[in-house]
Design a protein that fits this description.
By secondary structure, the chain is an all-alpha fold. It folds into two domains: about 25-70, no CATH class; about 70-120, no CATH class. About 70% of the residues lie in helices and about 0% in strands.
């Protein structure tokens, strides 16, 4: 059962504390996290496709021809877009978390101090 956008609370959940770092190269940990999200999505996608192919074959359906002829309505297109956005949120989780933390750390006082430092140079 899929929840609609109205039923899902929009809560940004972040793990507390410092993230473990496994690689010395900056950004490599974030890239590996993204790769693992993609790998997980690919496994799920392949399992679902395999299931669909087996169900179709068992029912005597030409699934490939049906997919080629499929025309999606607006509701289906919107559902796919929501699924893409959810996926991108998971894929870019670390970058979004870092940006959120940076935005929270950026106060007016910090901004004014930065401007003052630049002006003195």
């Amino acid at each position: 059962m899929t929840m609609t956008e109205e039923e899902r609370p929009h809560v940004i959940r972040h793990a507390k504390g410092k993230r473990p770092q496994f690689y010395d190269t900056p950004g490599l940990d974030a890239a590996m996290s993204m790769i693992m999200v993609l790998a997980n999505e690919m496994c799920v996608l392949r399992d679902r496709l395999d299931s669909a192919e087996r169900v179709a074959k068992g029912s005597g359906l030409d699934l490939a021809a049906g997919i080629e002829a499929l025309e999606l309505d607006q509701d289906a297109l919107e559902e796919r877009e929501q699924r893409r956005q959810d996926f991108l949120q998971r894929l870019f989780y670390l970058q979004l978390k870092d940006a959120d933390e940076a935005a929270k750390a950026q106060t007016e006082a910090v901004y004014n101090d930065t401007i003052a430092d630049i002006a003195q140079q």
